[in-house]
Amino acid sequence: MCGRYVIARTPGQLALPFDARVDDSIGEGAEPNWNVAPTHTVPVLLERLTEDGQLLPEIHAARWGLVPSWAKEISVGSKMFNARSETVMEKPSFRAAITARRCAIAADGYYEWQAPASGRGRKQPYYVHPRDGSVIWFAGIYEWWRIPEGSEDAARPGQSRPGRAAQKDTPGQWLLSCSILTREAPDPSSGDPHLAALGALHNRLPMGMGEDFAREWIAPDKDKDHTRALLERAVAHSLDVAGQWRMHPVSTDVGSVRSRGAHLVEPVQTLL
Length: 272
Known about the structure:
The chain has 272 residues and is of the alpha+beta class. The protein has helices spanning 11-15, 95-100, 193-201, 211-217, 224-242, and strands spanning 4-7, 21-22, 33-36, 41-49, 55-64, 82-84, 102-107, 109-114, 124-130, 136-146, 174-184, 204-206, 208-209, 245-249.
């Protein structure tokens, strides 16, 4: 599971390795946030189909928590911030997006909570991050949701739907949302101590990617067999990526979504 993460880099920094365009929609998603929670606006990398048929990488602003195109209310996305890799191809909420609308969601690191060994007491949050300070690109999926006219959601930041220029959509009509894919966590008895630590922390693991794999991941297709093979590779690749992550305990202040400062990732002493 991944329910809180950190993204403090600018959209320009994220776009540079991919020679990506930063969309005008980025707005709030450009603000550094050391405590991203579901429903927050975040930067995502996706490919946009232009009118002349070219695919171009772009950084867009997206709501974290996928809202299916057929949803009646935006609130359904508040619980769909993660998608299980084992069932993403079959779940009605995700199966269209995993084939045609894949994205990469940037993070400096993420938080996970570990329960006390006794089963009693307060859970301890940990910050998980690449040991070399590089960006994590989470394997993600995205959807476009048409904002109903006259609804309260119509006042939310919106944007034109990429690849739909011929329909002449106007800004504010569409909401872009996303979800992070997860996989089974490593075995706590793994021979790799870092993977074992992640396995002991939680039974689910967000799927990270390197830049090269992220480029391949975001390329859309309509071939389910290709998608299934790519997904299997992503699951395996994510374990190699996770092997480069490190973790340390942090303040329980991260439990409050009102806390968003850089102090949240600083190590703290614990009795665990």
